[in-house]
Amino acid sequence: MKNTELKALIFDVDGTLTDNEVHGHRVAFNLAFRDAGLDWFWDVEIYERLLEVFGGKERIRYYIEDFLTHFNAPGDLDGFILDLHKSKTAHYLALLKSGALPLRPGVARLIREARAAGLRLAIASTTTFENAELLIKMSLGEECLDWFDVMACGDVVANKKPAPDIYLYALEQLGLPAAECLVFEDTEAGLVSARAAGLTTLITVNESTREQDFSGAAIVLDQLGEPEQGFEVLQGDAGGATLVDVELLRRIHLESAT
Ligand code: XBP
Q1: Which ligand 1 atom sits closest to the C-alpha of 59?
Q2: Ligand 1: which of 49, 59, 92, 192 to mutate, judged by most atoms within 8 Å of the beta carbon?
Q3: DSSP letter, residue 144
Q4: pLDDT, tens digit, 9 for 90 and up, residues 213-256
Q5: How far is the CA of 219 from the centre of ligand 1 (A)?
Q6: CA distance from start to end of the chain
Q7: May I ask the CATH class of domain 21-97?
Q8: Structural domain boundaries of the chain?
Q9: Residue 254 · residue 121 · CB < 8 Å
Q10: Has this prediction a pTM greater than 0.85?
Q11: Between 20 and 30 A from 252 (CA), which of 89, 98, 103, 183?
Q12: Catalytic residue numbers?
């Protein structure tokens, strides 16, 4: 049991705020490969394997090193990957602007409710700041960017998830101990990262992560839930609740050991 007050919610972005990996990032990567004249195509099956590696630049390198049998790497491989990733990010931002990547159920509702209840909000994501920033602008409104005290994104830390770096950085920027915060994640690696930073973690799975190992999560749900569509509890105890609200979060926080 905790004897601390819940003061802040820390949200992962990709897969948690929006179900955007297969339908967003993957599409953007393939468009960048096409523009570069590469015959690479990441179908869903390959992409879900590549999601083992967090970080778009790191994922491209992983593909080159572990999936391609013949690739005449350019002399400046780092520069090649950087240019490819910049092109991918441009395509991803265009997808966001098109409205193709809405928030998952319950996300906007919970964020508004948490803010009204005086909880602080933060982002801790491997994606780039510009990707996270535009998602919030497009889905919540530009004025809502100020709701997030911290937006810890991408290369701000050296080691990406499952390393705890991005969560440790977010806690440092918040000026709060882990015991006063609660994390929302969608992947096993994200859970490992948050738990290694001492953070209580709520999981909302998506189709790519449903079968992953979420041992150590405070609770595992299929979504945050809406009044008209309750969540499904996959692991843990929601005490009869059908959607994630501040009351449920406070209870989960108090009942979690660490
Ligand atoms: C998920 C990631 C990111 C995205 C791609 O981040 O691993 O790398 O897949 O985005 P999180 P970039 O779950 O931490 O939000 O190409 O911008 O890295």
Answers
A1: 8
A2: 59
A3: G
A4: 999 999 999 999 999 999 999 999 999 999 999 999 999 999 99
A5: 23
A6: 8
A7: mainly alpha
A8: 8-19+102-257, 21-97
A9: no
A10: yes
A11: 103
A12: 12, 14
